[in-house]
Amino acid sequence: MAQKVVPVILSGGSGSRLWPVSRGSYPKQFWPLLNDHTLIQETALRGSACGSADPIIVCNADHRFIIAEQLREAGIKNPKIVLEPVGRNSAPAIAAAAFLVAQEDPDAILWVMAADAAITDLKSLQDSLQNAVLVAQSGWIATFGMKPTKPETGYGYIEAGSPIQNIPQAYEVARFIEKPSLDIAQELIQSDKYFWNSGMFLAKAKVFLSEIRSYEPEIYTTIKQSVQHCRVDMDFIRLDEESFQKSPNISVDYAIAERTKLAAVIPGDFGWSDIGSWDSLWDLSPKDPQGNVVYGEHIFLDRTKNCYVRSDGIVTAVTGVDDLIVVVTSDAVMISHRDNAQDIKHVVARLSAAGRKEAVEHKRLYRPWGFYESLIQAERFQVKRIVVEPGGKLSLQKHYHRAEHWVVVAGTALVTRDNEQLVLRENESVYLPLGSVHRLENPGKIPLTLIEVQSGPYLGEDDIIRLEDVYERN
């Protein structure tokens, strides 16, 4: 493929319909839901196999180190990780990528895709991609339309119009259809003119920018300024916050795709799914003779059919039921009929409205230096496990309401406590009185694991006064 194709991966979603595994702090694209690779790793590897340039990932700044580490593990070299200071939906994110690419080559083709979709037939994708590139070279904004396999109400649809001359299997878009009711979806799949909207787009950088300028000039102006004033932070590109947050919050579908006269659709049949629900994961996963999909050890099934059962660390017994989704994590259990899988997002909304942290956070929370997880929490004390990667360094900080006791379980810790530095090894400990200025570092070659015991009248994470932080957090 001679034309330069730049994979642009959008990693901004929270995947609330896959709760309780997918949450805002660690959404579905970071989980290995189908095989050993996470969804964002699969997407990046797919982009590398089919594209001809290093990928661009546009993401939430809070997820930057997770993404960098997962891409490194997958062998993706030289990715450009672009950080959104605030969430502004897909149109501003694509505009930022288009401005960055256009600085070097305005004729380069952006291949825009979500970080959390699945594709099972790479060869068919490559064949369809060749047609899409031809369409994009001719000045169109191409999208893939997926051949429907059932009356899906969780997807938007595309109606194919007139064929595009001299390009096989390419059509002008007659219209986009919002997620339909079941009755309408059943009608649509009876015709070969209607396709699922994959949400993938291909167009020259300058075409994206021209259409954004025409239909959403405020996005064009604010994102151009944000890119012009961006800065490099370690291995990341930080978009300017002041100008970026002035951008309208709008998806690329509403901003451009449904308004442009340049929309084209290329039909495809390469096993695409946006993995928008647990039921779609059931569809994609291998099943036992009774039609069950089972993840997690020590799960016992008896007289159970066509269920999706996932348990992360807790023994889960399911017996005598059909067509259920059962998902168990360390702090939440979700049970639903498969027909109601799309309704799980309403559960998350209820949890959020009630102020429950389970809506967005796991017990394990990832940080630039590693992760921590709460083991026990009660009145006036909390016990955590903290893991710091080699070279990782927590902020220099203090607390107004709690004291801490650290016990090293594995590895080596370099501890700053007020005006002294201590080196702690396995089975050694240190006490950090309330108000002391302290920092934890891992100077070793293996992960540092320690147990932290907090005590005091208030144990919230907002009782952290950062005095210095290499990761530039507030």
Automatic annotation (TrEMBL):
Pfam family, one: NTP_transferase
Sequence similarity: Belongs to the mannose-6-phosphate isomerase type 2 family.
Gene Ontology BP terms: GDP-mannose biosynthetic process; polysaccharide biosynthetic process
Record-listed E.C. numbers: 2.7.7.13
Span of domain Nucleotidyl transferase: 7-289
Protein name, entry field: mannose-1-phosphate guanylyltransferase
Catalytic reactions of this protein: alpha-D-mannose 1-phosphate + GTP + H(+) = GDP-alpha-D-mannose + diphosphate
Domain annotation MannoseP isomerase/GMP-like beta-helix: ranges: 296-351
InterPro entries per UniProt: GMPP_N, Man1P_GuaTrfase/Man6P_Isoase, Man6P_isomerase-2_C, ManC/GMP-like_b-helix, Mannose-6P_isomerase_type2, NTP_transferase_dom, Nucleotide-diphossugar_trans, RmlC-like_jellyroll
Positions of the Mannose-6-phosphate isomerase type II C-terminal domain: 355-469
Organism expressing this protein natively: Swingsia samuiensis
Alphabetical UniProt keywords: GTP-binding, Isomerase, Nucleotide-binding, Nucleotidyltransferase, Transferase
GO MF annotation, one: mannose-1-phosphate guanylyltransferase (GTP) activity
Gene3D superfamilies per UniProt: Jelly Rolls, Spore Coat Polysaccharide Biosynthesis Protein SpsA, Chain A
UniProt superkingdom: Bacteria
